[in-house]
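Example record for the data management plan.
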Amino acid sequence: MIHEGLPTQLPDIDPDETADWLASFDALVDERGRSRARYMMLRLLERAREMQVGVPALRSTDYINTIPPEREPWFPGDEEIERRIRAFIRWNAAVMVSSANRKGLEVGGHIATYQSSASLYEVGFNHFFRGKDHPGGGDQIYFQGHASPGIYARAFLEGRLEEEQLYRFRQEVQHGTGKGLSSYPHPRLMPDFWEFPTVSMGLTGINSIYQARFNRYLHNRGIKDTSDQHVWAFLGDGEMAEPESLGAIRIAAREELDNLTWVINCNLQQLDGPVTGNGKIIQELEANFRGAGWNVIKVVWGREWDDLLARDVNGVLVNKMNTTADGDFQTYSVEDGAYTREHFFGGDERLRKMVEHMSDAQIAKLPRGGHDYRKVYAAFDAATKHVGQPTVILAKTVKGWTIDALEGKNATHQMKKLTPEDIKRFRDRLYLPISDRDLERSYEETGAAPFFHPGAESPEIQYMLERRRQLGGSVPRRVQRSKPLTLPSDAAYKDLKQGGGKNKIATTMAVVRLLKEWMRDPEIGKRLVPIAPDEYRTFGMDAMFPSAKVYNPAGQQYESVDRKLLLSYKESKQGQMLHEGISEAGAVASATAAGSAYATHGEPMIPFYIFYSMFGFQRTGDSIWAMADQLSRGFLIGATAGRTTLTGEGLQHADGHSPLLAATNPAVVHYDPAHAYEIAHIMQNGLERMYGTGGPAGNGENVIYYVTVYNEPVAQPAEPADVDVEGILKGMHQTAVAEGEGPRVTLLGSGVGYPWIEDAARILREDWGVQADLWSVTSWNELARDAVAAEEWNLLHPGEAPRTSYVEERLVDVEGPVVAVSDYMRAVPLQIARWVPGDYRVLGADGFGFADTRPAARRFFHIDAQSVVVQALQALADAGQIDPAQVEKAFNTYRIDDPTAVADVQQEGGDA
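Corresponding structural encoding:
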């Protein structure tokens, strides 16, 4: 027997008794089902440990197929027709990429990935992948990004894409929008075709896990029956080196996500060479997944090996398979049969005899399991029937399979163009009815080989279309069936608009208070998905535990240590709150699944992901980019924002730049509100834009709202009677107009920086006779985008009346210099510098953060009220409006260069 990949010397001293035990187990499976059998096995293992009977974990097995030939199910399809379909798709996929690299175009692409995985995909397409019209709702399929040419090639045969589009692979605008094809699976670029973006290596793994988990969440909460939906994810063995690929696999096992199957295409090659030339990547991955609790199915060898393995009575062949490194297997894939006979079979007389009846040509054609249709079908069938665990299928293939010029070579991934001679050999290997003259004519006319279509009425096309009809329609396909939600009335925002009275309230608390109000709403309440990475208590959300409860598919099977407290921690199978542990990456994956449920499931869900702002875009920016590509919607709440607000936490917790990172994502709408009433309007507007009747089709807009809020308690004024809602939403609104005599300045502040300009205005007025107008800037990012959009419009419309940016419109009549400040680095407010009339001065928290009190940190960065005062006076002096000596006097008075000057200033509330 094999334990942990090694033989264990345990002789069978009573074969009859062994047979009885096995027969009893078989009967249990037949009569009571797999679930009951699984339970009994777990109890037996538990009892074995209690009785101190050592049973090592089966973390790896022999380097052979998991499913033996005698257990392979009957194959229900027409294998010959499906072989021809694969040949057509292989050809069109390769021609598409090669054509895209003809002289004068050369836009790149990947030929080899799909060629190695064609059988894996076609088994799925013809027998397993359920489409959107399936009664169960359809599967979610994450296609490997580099395999996109094969998916397009199949869609062409199905009549979903035109031949002209295939010629325009990777040419998305030069022929007109929508006339070409995107490089990879990008829903934002092809919103009716792709569902999941997958080409950012590693994200497929974690996103598919959290998608499968979210399916269960919807089911357990009674929002949608997802019991007949399966999540499939296709990954590469080289891709598994990305930490995100394996980082969340324990979550899938812990939550028993048997609605999830990963298919890892183990062609043993990454971009530049072998994945593990000296080792065995399939064995390595098997150990990882078994150790994490997954069901592992290996598809290593094709059916031609079955006879040889049956002859292996002494295990010499299995031993050779176990001990041969991947680097050698790659060499065998490019050498002839004589080489393999000598180097693989030739080292042992028993092995030589095992293949003496075979010719060198037959040895050369001994296939890897991932190319054997029936072996792959058996694996997929077993995966979909497995209960209680997620399944990973490790399928061994050859990169570039069927293309002689590419097969197994280290440079295969970078080879993007086939010569006419390569094409002819490829055609011959696929047995395609394309003449040399047809090839030559196509090269003469287009510079590339022709695409092949057998005709709409051909048996192959009719077969593949019928299979898709039976399985619920074509995939991939993105469908939006949800309707706009009935949103809360203005009454839901009343408390925030009333202000805090005498109480100081942090904006984090204000936004959490609004979330609680939303969750009480009869229409959208159940659709809210609160998400946090083990920080609910940090953000004052522990009050939600008893009512909303933390989602756990197993419920709460223990007595909580705080069960006697009013705000005790409670878990439930129907829980609403997603508690991701310390995993921002997992939290974004949940937000992505929830935010795209309006399309994936036809159920609009509203993710409300709240996190330390520093650990949002900086740590998971790639995931948020993919979230935008997936057309997800929802709220990202960057709490404890700012570089100086989160006192005591230090350098890696001090966010002074997340608005800049957010600005790089075109789908992200960032706001940095100072007041609770601003939050009310921003959040209400976000709901309307994303879940109301906005957007081009009246079904909401595909944007993500990122709102930065702070943990510092500040005075919250009531909403003014003449509040400028348009200004709040566009990015700035005036909050105070100076009425006295004397020099004038305009002060701009955002977020927690707004109280600093309020205090600065008072000091300027009382001590220096300077009058200051105040503006609350709710979004530097949106102001900058508006200004850039105005300039672009002017560029594209010469001769028409030019447009003016909102910044210019609002500040056109200001008197004196403009001083801006925020708790972020200067680059954030400098985004609008080009469009601010007159002298524009900016203060910001540039550099690394550190641990100290807020007054000390703000004095160090020169962003506190006194620093604003000195900056305003200096600007006035430079303009000749006041005596420069006044600036020096103010500098000496406030000692803005010396943090020790505020050592005795106390702070209150809002700790980490």
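Summary line stored alongside the record: Confidence is low (pLDDT under 50) at residues 1-8.
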